[in-house]
Amino acid sequence: MLLTYKIEIKPTEKQAWQIDSHISGSRWAYNLFLDINRQRYECGYHYMGAYEFSKWFNYEYLEANPDDTWIKDLYAKSVKQAFIDADTAMKRFFKKLGGFPHWRSFKRGQGSYYFVKNSKAQIIPCQRHRIKLPKLGWVRLKEFGYIPTDAEHFVIKQGRIKFKAGRYYLTCLVEQAELPKSELTGEPVGIDLGLKEFAILNDGTLYHNQNKSSRVRSIRKRLRRLQRKMSRQYQALKARRQKEGKSATDLNLAKTQRKVQRLYQQLTNIQSDYQNKIIATVVRTKPQWVALEDLNVKGMMKNRYLAKAISHQGFYNFRNKLATKCQQFDIPVHLTGRFEPTSKLCHQCGHKKVDLKLKDRVYECSNCNYTKDRDINAALNIRDTENFELAY
Ligand SMILES: [Zn+2]
C-alpha cells in the first residue's frame, strides 16, 4: 500500500538556497520542454518524449548553450522529473484530457525539488527528526516521528519539496504493508453537512462551523484589509510603471502579497486540521459504513447568496479526505443521492413532510408523532437510505 506523508521541514540557510535553485531549475526545465516541443511542432518535427528529450538535452542542447550548464549543478533526477512532468501534461493535452499546459511560474508557487529511490538496494535514510536527501544532506523535520523510520517495513520511494507561503513542505510516498484488517464492529455513521453547523452525526455529535469562530473571523478580517491595501499598492505601481517604465518595482507590495499568502495558508491549515480531526474520530470507532450526502457543490455555488459560505466550508475536500481515509480501513462510504429528501422524511415511519420549513429546528412527524432534532433526523436518514453510491 502506498501512502503519502506531508511534513514541514526546517532547512538551513544554505539548504534553503539549494532547494530554491532546484525549484527554479525544475520550472526552467519544464518550460524549456514545452517551448522546444512547441517549436518543433511548428517546424513539422516529431514530438520528443521525456526520455528522448532528456538525452537530447544533455548531449546536444547543453553543448550548444554553454550558458545553461548551471543546470548540471542540480540533482539530475530532479531536473529529469521536470521533463517527465511536462511530458505527462503534454500527453494529457494530446488525449484531450486537458488544455495546453501552462508555463510554470514563480508567482503560482510552482516547481519542486524531486528525489527518488534509485535502486532496490538504496534506501533514503530517515530518522525521527531528520531525513537525508541527495545534494542537501540531512534536512531537519519540523514534526518528530511522523514519517516512519522503520526502513524494513516502510520504504520511502520518492518525494518532493515545495515552497508555499514562506515555508518548505516535503511530501513523500511510502510503500508499507497493508494495515491488518480489523473487523468493523462500530455502529454505522450518518453525517449531515451544513452551513449552520459544519457537521452533525446521527448520534447527535455536533461539529461547529469553524468559519464562525472568532479565530477564523479575525483572520478573514485581516485578510480583507490586506487585500484592500494590496490593491491600492498595485494601482500605485501601475501608475508608476506608466511614468517610469517597466523597471519600477514595489517591495512593499511584495511584502503585502507574502502576508496575504500566509493568511490564506493559515486558513487552509485550520480547516484541514479540523477536518482531519473529525475524520479521525469517526474512523476510530470502526463503523460498518459511513454515509454522507453527495452534495451538489457546483449547483449550490450558483446561489450567489450562499456561494461564499459554501466555498469556505470545504465540503468537497472533506468528502475526498473521508473517502481516502476510510478506504485504508476498508470502511464503505455511502454517498446519498443528491435528490434524496433526507431532511423531509420521518426516520421512524418514512412519512414525507412536504411543508418542512428551514426554520423548523425540530422534526415533528404528523403521521407517527415522532419528534427529533431536524439535523439528527436527516443524519439518520442519510445513514439508512438505500439510495446511495459507493465513494470508492
Ligand atoms: Zn413518522
From TrEMBL:
Which residues, by range, are in coiled-coil regions?
A: 209-273
Q: Which UniProt keywords apply?
A: Coiled coil, DNA recombination, DNA-binding, Metal-binding, Transposition, Zinc
The UniProt entry, under InterPro entries, shows: Cas12f1-like_TNB, RNA-guided_DNA_endo/Transpos, Transposase, Transposase_put_HTH
Q: Where is the Cas12f1-like TNB domain?
A: 315-382
A Gene Ontology BP annotation from the UniProt entry:
DNA recombination
Q: Which residues form the Probable transposase IS891/IS1136/IS1341 domain?
A: 174-304
Tell whether Zinc is among the UniProt keywords.
Answer: yes
Keyword Metal-binding on entry: yes
Q: Which GO terms describe its molecular function?
A: DNA binding; metal ion binding
Q: Where is the Transposase putative helix-turn-helix domain?
A: 1-44
The record's comment on protein family reads:
In the C-terminal section; belongs to the transposase 35 family.
* Name listed for the protein in its UniProt record: Transposase
Recite the lineage of the species.
Bacteria, Bacillati, Bacillota, Bacilli, Lactobacillales
